[in-house]
Amino acid sequence: MTNSVLIVGASGASTLESSYARAFSRLNWRVQFWNPAESLEKNARGSRFGRIFSRLVHVEPWLRKANLDLIQMCDELRPALLLIITTEGVRGGTLAQIKALAPDILIYCVFPDTPHNLTADRIHCLPFFDRTAVGSPAWVDAFERLGATRVHYLPFAADTDYHRPVDAANGKASKRHDVAFIGIWRPQREELLEQLAVFDLRVYGSDYWRTHTRPGSPVRAHWAGRTALGAEFATVCASSRIMLNIIDAVGWPGPNMRAFEQPACRAFSLVTRTPAILSHFTEGETVECYGSIEEARDKIVFYLKNETARRRIADASYRFVVEGGHTYLDRARQLLQWAKEDGISLDGE
Questions:
Q1: Cα separation of 71 and 77, whole Å?
Q2: Order of strands, sheet of 177-182, starting from the edge strand that comes earlier in the sequence
Q3: Is residue 67 one of the residues assigned to a domain?
Q4: Whole-structure pTM over 0.85, yes or no?
């Protein structure tokens, strides 16, 4: 069995799966992908209509046929590690068959979402994972209750291929803004940003900010008209004095991706104060937090007037994330440490 990992998920450049893939490659592991969505579309009946229909409606025979591709890949490749990040589209029965076919393959899950988004299919997969890693310490108990064994807290991290300091003048941003937020639309986020619209605010996210924001909301005028993914994420951080990080009820208590990505770009982050955030970062030293809209406004005013303090925290947060063990290379090393503990036999050892 070679040092190879089969990653289940999307292979796009700025996906979490690709961040892990690049990290494993740097550790001299062979990386291959299986994308459930692509396999499902390939196996859906009815050509174009079937592909579209399969995205909207769960058709068990199509899903079962698509999962045969995963079984066949595991049989042919015999990877040391099957790393499942995109659990949507993976069947519990398929994982059971892989266990029977190749019991030496370790099956790990890095679950990138909250318990709120655990569907029945995803829950059926949980008992077949040798280890499950969740993105918040608050979710460990929930996953154990739902049937997962050996659940660990493994936070998100920074992908230094994309999350790194850049010169804003070399990017797409033509104007420097005082406050910026990157994220999808949610009602709680809209409500908070409305109360910060008195500042020079810029909001980056999908078209939902146009279609879902209530009529007359001041946030509409602050939407950039696009999201900020990949390299543009770092450009937005470089062209913004304060980067907001709103942790709402859906993602509570975090830390979310932006908690590590923004500091890696040497951005000054103003984050919702949560126990999970403060378990990593030190308020006033490597992050600044708020607990109410009044506190958020006061801190925005203060730090816009105090560039030295703002830069001091941004620099400290950068060192903490990039040099302190919070990159995806560090996360991949942790997964491999667990794999060794689980008896995996690696080439050259």
A1: 10
A2: 201-204, 177-182, 240-245, 269-272, 288-290
A3: yes
A4: yes
Verify that 82 and 103 share a domain, yes or no: yes
Domains of the chain: total: 2
Residue 129 lies in a domain: yes
Q: Which H or E run contains 110? A: strand 106-111
User: What CATH number does the domain containing 15 carry?
Assistant: 3.40.50.2000
Q: What are phi and psi of 299, to 5 degrees?
A: -75, -30
In angstroms, what CA-CA distances link 211 with 56, 172, 184, 214? 20, 24, 12, 8
Sole residue written with tokens 């908690």: 259
**349, part of any domain:** no
194-216 tens-digit pLDDT: 999 999 999 999 999 999 999 99
Q: How confident is the model at residue 52 (pLDDT cuts 50, 70, 90)?
A: very low
- The packing angle between helices 60-77 and 92-101, to 10°, is 30
Statement: residue 55 has pLDDT above 60: no
Alpha helices for 44-186 (secondary structure H): 47-56, 60-77, 92-101, 120-125, 140-145
Conformational region of residue 308, where left means phi above 0, alpha means psi within -120 to 50, and beta covers everything else: alpha
Structural domain containing residue 253: 168-322
Q: pLDDT, tens digit, for every residue of 311-346?
A: 999 999 999 999 999 999 999 999 999 999 999 876
